[in-house]
Write a structure and sequence with these properties.
The longest helix is centred in the N-terminal third of the chain and has 12 residues, at 36-47. The protein is built from eight helices and ten strands. It has helices spanning 2-7, 36-47, 76-86, 103-113, 155-166, 185-191, 206-211, 221-232; strands at residues 14-17, 51-55, 70-73, 93-97, 116-126, 129-136, 143-151, 171-179, 194-200, 215-218. A seven-stranded mixed beta sheet has the order 6-5-4-7-8-9-10. Strands 1-2-3 form a three-stranded parallel beta sheet, with helices on one face. Strand 7 (143-151), helix 5 (155-166) and strand 8 (171-179) form a beta-alpha-beta unit. The protein has two domains: 1-73, Rossmann fold (3-Layer(aba) Sandwich), CATH 3.40.50; 75-219, Rossmann fold. The protein is an alpha/beta fold. The protein is globular. Pathway: Metabolic intermediate biosynthesis; 5-phospho-alpha-D-ribose 1-diphosphate biosynthesis; 5-phospho-alpha-D-ribose 1-diphosphate from D-ribose 5-phosphate (route I): step 1/1.
């Protein structure tokens, strides 16, 4: 589509990719492994894209794979809004990261809500399979809110939920930007102890919601629409990093 627009004499092509593909393959984690995120970046550039708009990249350094402007929008403002409007005990909750890599995201949300945060250190035996978890922080007699950028097979967040309940949490919510939900994910969520698993609609969730009543969706279409409008008119998109457009 990008190339079709380009050869049809489009003066500028902006590509909106809510969930960037292969974002987890941003480095070589073993010998002869591909850096697929860089390959996707090259393909988009060669096809003729002049600007990329995406949301919550798994690794922010992916922006450096491009030689064209990349706007990495954040779901954080909508997550904060959902917490305040839907969790009555949010003033006495703990924001939890299911891994050390999400600590920065979690501390930012916890600071804006003026609540405590915790993180879970996990060790993997292999991809999508967690060996053991260690909770760093206190969730006793509090609502625990797990926050992450994506969930695939949901093994990590389901194990994390069990860990939080065993540590004394009164309830567990999961808030995710990208709900991939592949393989056994839906059955794991149905059998887990979540009050709700909340995802944005960067990936369509209609089918998953039919099979799992715990899944709720935050609509981020207004953020993308406002980013497109501002980009088209040459305005700054920095406002969207901290605000939800009305």
């Amino acid at each position: 589509m990008i190339n079709a627009c380009k050869i049809a004499s489009a003066s500028r092509v902006a590509s909106v990719i809510p969930c960037f593909p292969y974002a987890r393959q941003d480095k070589k984690d073993k010998s002869r492994a591909p850096i697929s995120a860089k390959l996707v970046a090259n393909m988009l550039s060669v096809a003729g894209a002049d600007h990329i708009i995406t949301m919550d990249l798994h690794a922010s350094q992916i922006q450096g794979f491009f030689d064209i402007p990349v706007d990495n929008l954040y779901a954080e403002p909508t997550v904060l809004k959902w917490i305040r409007e839907n969790i009555s005990e949010w003033r006495d909750c703990t924001i939890v990261s299911p891994d050390a890599g999400g600590a920065k995201r979690v501390t930012s949300i916890a600071d804006q809500l003026n609540v405590d945060f915790a993180l879970i250190h996990k060790e993997r035996k292999k991809a999508n399979e967690v060996d053991r978890m260690v909770l760093v922080g206190d969730v006793k007699d509090r609502v625990a809110i797990l926050v992450d950028d994506m969930a695939d097979t949901c093994g990590t967040i389901c194990h994390a939920a069990d860990k939080l309940l065993s540590a004394g949490a009164t309830g567990v919510y999961a808030l995710l930007t990208h709900g991939i939900f592949s393989g056994p994910a839906i059955s794991r969520i149905n059998n887990a102890c979540f009050e709700a698993v909340v995802v944005t609609n960067t990936i369509p969730q209609e089918d998953n919601m039919e099979h799992c009543s715990k899944i709720q969706v935050i609509d981020i279409s207004m953020i993308l629409a406002e980013a497109i409008r501002r980009t088209h008119n040459g305005e700054s998109v920095s406002y969207l990093f901290s605000q939800v457009p009305l």
